[in-house]
Amino acid sequence: MLEPSQKYMSRLFKDGRAMFLAYDQGLEHGPKDFNDKNYNPEYIIDIALRNKYTGLIFHKGLAEKYRENYSGRVPLIVKVNGKDNIAKAQAEEAPYSPVVCSVDYAVKLGADAVGYTLYVGSPIEAEAMKDFREVQEKARDYGLPVVGWMYPRGKYVTNDVDPNIVAYGARVGLELGCDLLKVKYTGSKETFKKVTDMAGRAKVLCAGGLKSDLNVFLKQTRDILDVGAAGVAVGRNVWQSDDPDKVSRALEKIIFDNKSVEEALK
Ligand code: FBP
Q1: Which of 112, 128, 28, 30 has the alpha carbon at shortest distance from 63?
Q2: CA 200 to ligand 1 centroid distance, Å
Q3: Which has the minimum average pLDDT: 3-7, 50-54, 89-93, 152-156?
Q4: pLDDT value, residue 159
Q5: Given ligand 1 and candidates 23, 25, 153, which is best to mutate, with the most ligand atoms within 8 Å of its CB?
Q6: 224 near 234, Cβ under 8 Å?
Q7: Of 60, 79, 138, 182, which one is the catalytic site residue?
Q8: Cβ of residue 79 lying under 6 Å from some atom of ligand 1
Q9: Average pLDDT over residues 234-252
Q10: Separation of CA 151 and ligand 1 centre (Å)
Q11: Are 242 and 213 a contacting pair, CB within 8 Å?
């Protein structure tokens, strides 16, 4: 197969739009992201099930242990590479995220897509590109969509949200065979258009980033959709909120019903 199967793509998208709940931060950031509710994967799964998420992003350990809670009820995206955040200085200089789950195993877990973080521009990017080639081609054997976390980073990247660098990251994802690209927000609608342009036929999803003011986050979401993004893959702005259902419902209205921020908050 040279493209992802429609069976999977139609689960991940509703009318061409996607809304994924990301919960890989336990590995990527550690406990500092969590409070006394959201450290528990069951709390996150319940948010996904109560609302209209079209994907739940887990590393393999959560996918295994919490299977009975989510399986068959929300599409699963398995992150197949990952790293912790303890050797921070090294990660800032030369980031590398090893493969921690094979595509074969992701399929056994019932994945509807696989996710891979590529630190574009890292001094050891060549290693990651080889890993990614194997992941991407194996995913094709199964018709599984490939979601690329396209994150320019490392000592040669001075500003990881510079529009030119985010757009370059998106283009790298298109060139390497990603079907969906998860990128960071560039700060404005105008600059984000360059990112969606460079992404070509790959679908662009925006990460949420650090928890921000709800209006600011929703405006960012409205803006990225207006310039061609397909949706969001968001974590902290939802599950660090005191009212994750309110955030989720507003996102649904913007993403699936094309509402304005004001209408979404009514
Ligand atoms: P958020 O919406 O919480 O920012 O999550 C998006 C995400 O890409 C996660 O999937 C991932 O764990 C994290 O951000 C990576 O963040 P960082 O930029 O610190 O590597």
Answers
A1: 112
A2: 23
A3: 89-93
A4: 98
A5: 25
A6: no
A7: 182
A8: no
A9: 98
A10: 10
A11: no
Q: How far is 155 from 121, CA to CA, in rounded Å?
A: 8
pLDDT score of 101? 98
Beta strand spans in 37-151 (E): 55-58, 76-79, 113-118, 146-150
Q: Are 186 and 195 in contact (CB under 8 A)?
A: yes
Which amino acid makes up residue 150? M
Kindly state if the Cβ of 24 falls inside 6 Å of ligand 1.
Answer: yes
CB hemisphere CA count around 8 (13 angstroms): 21
Residue 82: its pLDDT value, please? 98
- Residue 207 in contact with ligand 1 by CB distance below 6 A: yes
142 is known as an active-site residue = no
- Residue ranges in 37-124 assigned as alpha helix (H): 41-50, 60-65, 67-70, 88-93, 103-108
Q: Is the dihedral of CA 179, 27, 231, 105 positive or negative?
A: positive
Which residue carries 């979404």 as its tokens? 264
Distance (Å, whole) CA 80 – CA 133: 13
pLDDT band, very low/low/confident/very high, at 186 (cuts 50, 70, 90): very high
Ligand 1: atom nearest CA of 22 is 10
Size of the chain, expressed as the number of residues it contains: 266
Look up the ipTM and state it. Answer: 0.93
Give tens-digit pLDDT for 11-46: 999 999 999 999 999 999 999 999 999 999 999 999
Residue range 120-171, pLDDT digits in tens: 999 999 999 999 999 999 999 999 999 999 999 999 999 999 999 999 999 9
First to last CA, the chain: 45
Q: Does residue 194 carry a catalytic annotation?
A: no
Q: What is the dihedral of CA 261, 42, 205, 173, to 10 degrees?
A: 170
Complete domains list, the chain, with CATH: 6-264 (3.20.20.70)
